[in-house]
Each structure stands twice: as C-alpha cells, then as structure tokens.
Design goal:
By secondary structure, the protein is mainly alpha-helical. The chain has eight helices and four strands; from the N terminus they run H-H-H-E-E-E-H-H-H-E-H-H.
Amino acid sequence: MTADWMNDADVVSAAQIYLPLSAVVIARLVHGPKPRQFAACLLSVLWTVSALLAVQIINMWAGWWSYPIGALGINGMPIACLLGWAVLWGLLPQLAFSRLGILWVAAIMIVADLVFMPLCGSVVRLGPHWLVGEAVAVVGVLAPALCIARWTYDNTHLRARSAIQVATSGMIFLFRRSQLAQADQYSTCLAAVGSWSVCRDGICRARTGDADSL
C-alpha cells in the first residue's frame, strides 16, 4: 500500500505542497506570532525560491536529479516541487524551530530531505551523484535561508543580511529577465509559424487557381 501511494505521481505532487503547508499552519498556530516574523519568513522564502532556481540551472548540467518531461515548471523544475521545497526550507524551519540553533535546524531539515527524496521517485528521479547536489543545495539554499531568517528575528548581522537581500534581488531580476526573453522567443516562433502558414495557404490557393485556369 505504501509503495503504491508513493509511486502515484499525482498524489506525491500534491503532497509536495500540502504537507509542508499543513506543517507550516500547525507550527504557526502552536508557536503564535513573533516580532519581525513576517519579514524573516518573506526574506527566507524569496532567497529559497531564487537560490533553488539557480541550483536547478547547475543541476541541468550536472544531472544530480531529473523531473518528468511535460511537467509545468521553470527552468525544467516543476512548479509543485519548487513551491513545496520553498515552503519546506523557507517557511517551516522559521516557524517551527525558531528557538533551536541554526545548526540543529539545518541537521533536522537535511535528515528530512535525505529520508523523503528517495521516496518521491515518481516526481524526482535521483541520479548517482544526487548527494552532491543535496550538499550544494544545503550550502547554497538552506543555510543562507536559515541565517537571514534568524538574523532578521534577532535584528543582527545587518551587513550580511543586506548582502543576501542584494543577491536575492539580483537573482530575481535575472530570472525575470530570462523568462521574459524566453516568452519573446516563443512569441516570435509562433508569429513565424503563423506567417508561414499564411504564405503556404496563399501559395496553395495560387496553384489551385492556376490549375483551374488551365
């Protein structure tokens, strides 16, 4: 029963989003609001999303893991996986483990990732060197997300927080520009295809008219 459940791509895709979201809601209800909580969570989520997309670009070259073809996504990463990972790393630790040290929180999230990623084979196909990708994601995504959230909570490390915010803004700008460029290329291709179809129809009609006149 468990294997069938975990191999169902639709169920796993939904669980990627709704399980972390449910855990976030429960953590928020249990621990209640805190000063600077909104700012800490917002900065953490923005960093997590942008850094995950950056890691995905490297992953497309390194092949640490892959996703099913045809899934709606950004840079080859399905939206469900991106959102679920962003909530899991960008929101849940900040709400559920705000009193633990950053190293302990990182250890908990790493263990959770190592346990659940191999179980999600229907939506994430792990390559032989996926642990290398996991290490890169931990260092480049999880650790800065935890740090900027905790530093925002405590109102410390202003320069480091500012550096992470600048990096986040830069990555968001670059990804936005990349998506707009891809959209322009797609529109150009559609226009070219449409123009070719019109020309082809005109040529066919002209040939038909010539044949009728003969």
